[in-house]
Amino acid sequence: PGYQVIIGHTPVLSMIQPEDERIKYAMDLESRGEHLRIFHAEGFIDIDCGCGHSYPIKALACIRLEDMAEFYQWNEG
Question: Does pTM top 0.85 for this prediction?
């Protein structure tokens, strides 16, 4: 309690369960030309937006600790 853990290495896409929901979510993002976003849950934040994978919805995500502002870099189109 009182702490927020920031993790990586586990893609945010894997946080969506079950697998069919994960696939639906990814396909929906791709159809709208959007990318993965940082995942927030109680007690932790996952910043792994799949940058090291071949997902078409991948992004490099960063979080500025001073104010928790989020920044992304991705290839559009």
Answer: yes
- The string of DSSP letters for 18-51 reads SHHHHHHHHHHHHHTT-----EEETTEEE---BT
Contact yes or no for 75/56 (Cβ under 8 A): no
Per-residue pLDDT reduced to its tens digit, 5-43: 999 999 999 999 999 999 999 999 999 999 999 999 999
Nearest residue to 49 via CA among 6, 4, 8, 5: 8
Report residue 74 as tokens: 């991705």
CA atoms of 13 and 67, how far apart (whole Å): 24
